[in-house]
Design brief:
The complex is a heterodimer of chains A (about 425) and B (about 230).
Chain A (H helix, E strand, L loop, with lengths): L1 H20 L1 H38 L3 E7 L2 E3 L1 E2 L2 H6 L4 E7 L1 E6 L4 E6 L8 H15 L6 H4 L4 E2 L9 E4 L1 H7 L6 E5 L5 E9 L1 E2 L2 H4 L2 E4 L1 H8 L5 E2 L1 E6 L5 H11 L3 E5 H38 L4 H12 L4 H33 L6 H5 L16 H20 L2 H4 L14
Parallel strand pairs in A: 6-12, 8-10
Antiparallel strand pairs in A: 1-2, 1-14, 1-15, 3-13, 4-14, 5-6, 7-11, 8-12, 9-10
Chain B lengths: L1 E10 L7 E11 L4 E5 L6 H8 L7 E6 L2 E2 L5 H11 E4 L11 H6 L9 H14 L15 H13 L5 E5 L7 H16 L3 E6 L2 H4 L6 E6 L2 E6 L1
Parallel strand pairs in B: 3-8, 3-9, 6-7, 7-8
Antiparallel strand pairs in B: 1-2, 1-4, 4-5, 9-10
The chains are: A alpha+beta (about 425), B alpha/beta (about 230).
Bound molecules: adenosine-5'-diphosphate (ADP) and magnesium ion.
Chain lengths: ~425, ~230
């Protein structure tokens, strides 16, 4: 056993010196290999991060959102509808929401303006509304502890009339922060200056990136909405199996109301994420293909120098199996080095630089493209898959030409002429 | 010590290029002696030497080492016998470029998994015996022809073999270095080792250290001389 370990050490040392001897070739190889692992791992991390974001949204989404529809178009929701909905059996709570999009021509971006639920401005109420939703989604969900966290946190900022709280994406885009003023153009053409009371931090930047929280009064002043209207309603249902039933009752009692259940919202998100995921799969398969070609190329031959060296090793007493072990270590070292470098670079890329390489492809959908810095999450299963997709085939590919090496007779060393 | 019975070697058997390099060679090589295989180029010296040294198998006939039949042993055993029994000095030094002289010299010992500190001491001792200890850390491409050959001799000796095999060792050496080489051979003999050399260099086969000369021609032995 001791001798075996010592032997492996010798072989590894020799392999390292062999690799260093062919520096240019092997570093080129390593760089290409690392690049491929980098692309594969980035794709995996990115798809996973975006799915994780989606699941966060899922947990916090209200079960039913009710809008008012006029001629098929989303319209302001009359407050007096609320009582009708509250009286439907199975409805636990109804909450009105005031929110909308605001186009900022200065930076050509759409913001989402939102008034914090009910008793405005208190971080507590945001928390409690998120918790309410979590209770329903907790059934049979192993990750329900996550759900008890609020979707976003106000970082201790207090929302008062004349102030607003902005998401990180907006802060980045406009280079503004706490204490700065932000001008808005109201519905009747006046300028309204709001002071930034703080920024939002969130588990999900996807949600909060383009978000702005303002008080109900300011919202109504900005958009010119009277007290008898809100944007829409959220409905909390006690029993998840009654959601569809409640939705159909709302539709029956209020024909111009449109209840949207969470599953429908999810489907919308899903299609967005799947489209993105699909694009990633294209990148992914291209990288896999490149890898296969590259591994195959590597497997297909031994250089004259390598043949000569194997001949010498065999002549001085190495067995074919010793040569195979050497080749194994060679493949293992190159692929492990490439694997770890590639994975670490991909991790930094996706979680610290906001997928800067993929950004051009992803940015199209919003100027406020969120950075996914906040949820660095490594999925062991994916890493294992990646490992088996790269390290294993490559190592095998380096051992393959050995069946050729085995045919190099030791006496070939006696026939080498010249250098 | 080594006995060859009716040994034949056919290259590319069955092909149009089939070539019979050895025809029924019977030979006995004594232990603790210096034997020279002499003959013109193409007479089958290298072929015979590689069969004697367990580097290749004969197409027919038997090879016995210390009375033990080794022709039919599987590769693993043959390799094991080869690296423990034989030390090879090739016509070319056949050193591996890019690594140091010391690493080259230790190569044959790697598969045996000997402790590194011991191995290093042994290698350094070998190098200093042939006066190239000062080149231990040099890369092999910086060596002169004579130094490279001495390095390859140290490598041949690293596993302390009983039998030393040298294929035309003086072919690339000048007269002075050739004499130097024969002195090294003499030392081996005095240490009780068996030496087998192929050569068509008179400086080798006429040397007083040589105990017997075997004449090869067209793959056959012409007759033994004292
Ligand atoms: N691998 C081989 N394939 C075919 N012919 C070979 C091979 N090796 C040697 N020969 C032939 O066998 C003959 C004897 O070769 P060799 O033993 O090298 O002779 P020597 O060492 O005496 O010059 C030569 O004619 C050579 O061309
Ligand atoms: Mg020859």
């Amino acid at each position: 056993m001791r001798a075996w370990i010592e032997k492996q050490r010798y072989i590894i040392d020799f392999t390292i010196s062999s690799l260093l001897r062919r520096k240019v070739k092997n570093f080129g190889l390593l760089a290409l290999y690392t690049l491929i692992v980098f692309i594969l791992a980035s794709t995996m991390f990115f798809t996973y991060a975006i799915k994780k974001e989606a699941s966060l949204i899922l947990k916090s989404a209200p079960e039913i959102v009710v809008q008012k529809i006029v001629a098929g178009r989303h319209d302001l929701f009359p407050v007096n509808y609320i009582e009708t909905i509250k009286n439907i059996r199975g409805v636990a709570a109804v909450e009105s929401r005031l929110w909308g999009y605001y186009y900022d021509s200065l930076v050509s971006a759409n913001y989402t303006l939102l008034t914090p639920p009910s008793n405005a401005g208190s971080a507590d109420s945001v928390k409690s509304s998120a918790t309410t939703t979590a209770v329903e989604s907790a059934s049979g969900d192993p990750q329900s502890t996550d759900a008890s966290k609020p979707l976003f946190e106000l970082n201790g900022a207090v929302l008062e009339p004349g102030t607003l709280i902005i998401g990180n994406g907006i802060a980045r885009l406009r280079h503004i922060g706490k204490g700065d003023y932000m001008p808005f153009l109201t519905f009747d053409g006046k300028v309204m200056n709001l002071k930034i009371a703080g920024t939002l931090s969130s588990q999900s930047e996807l949600v909060s990136s383009d978000l702005m929280l303002i008080t109900e009064d300011d919202y109504r002043k900005l958009f010119g909405i009277d007290n008898s209207h809100v944007t829409d309603l959220t409905v909390v249902v006690n029993n998840p199996s009654e959601v569809a039933m409640v939705a159909s009752k709302i539709k029956k009692r209020l024909p111009d109301a449109r209840p949207i259940i969470r599953d429908e919202i999810l489907r919308t998100y899903d299609s967005i994420f799947n489209w993105r995921g699909g694009m990633m799969i294209v990148i992914f398969s291209a990288a896999v293909l490149a890898f296969v070609i590259f591994a195959w190329d590597k497997a297909s031959g031994l250089s004259a120098g390598e043949r000569r060296e194997i001949g010498i090793l065999k002549a001085v007493g190495w067995e074919t199996s010793d040569v195979i072990q050497m080749k194994f270590w060679e493949g293992a070292m190159i692929s492990l080095a490439a694997f770890f470098t590639g994975v670490i670079l991909a991790y930094i890329h996706v979680f610290f630089t906001g997928s800067i390489v993929f950004e051009p492809a992803l940015k199209g959908w919003s100027n406020l493209y969120p950075h996914f810095e906040l949820t660095p999450f490594v999925n062991l299963e994916q890493l294992t898959t990646l490992f088996f997709l790269t390290v294993v085939p490559y190592t095998v590919a380096t051992i393959v030409p050995i069946w050729k090496a085995a045919t190099i007779d030791p006496d070939s060393a006696m026939r080498f002429t010249g250098e | 010590m080594i006995e060859l019975v009716n040994v034949k070697k056919v290259y590319n058997a069955g092909n149009p290029s089939e070539f019979s390099a050895l025809n029924s060679v019977n030979l006995h090589i004594a232990g603790n002696r210096v034997t020279v295989l002499k003959g013109p180029s193409g007479s089958g010296k290298t072929t015979l030497l590689s069969i004697v040294g367990c580097m290749s198998r004969p197409s027919a006939g038997r090879v016995k080492l210390n009375g033990r039949e080794i022709t039919s042993l599987p590769e693993r055993f043959l390799t094991d016998i080869r690296r423990k029994t034989f030390g090879f000095i090739f016509q070319q030094p056949n050193l591996i470029k890019g690594i140091t002289v010391l690493d080259n010299v230790m190569l044959p010992a790697y598969p045996l998994g000997e402790k590194r500190s011991h191995l290093k001491i042994k290698a350094m001792k070998g190098l200093s015996e042939l006066n190239i200890a000062n080149k231990a850390a040099s890369k092999v491409e910086w060596l002169s022809g004579g130094e490279a050959q001495r390095a390859s001799i140290v490598r041949a000796l690293i596993n302390d073999p009983h039998i030393i095999i040298a294929d035309e060792p003086t072919a690339h050496l000048d007269t002075k270095l050739s004499y130097r080489f024969m002195e090294i051979i003499e030392k081996f003999k005095s240490e009780g080792k068996t030496v087998i050399i192929t050569s068509h260099d008179p400086l080798v086969y006429e040397s007083s250290i040589v105990d017997s000369v075997v004449n090869l021609r067209d793959g056959q032995i012409e007759g033994e001389q004292a």
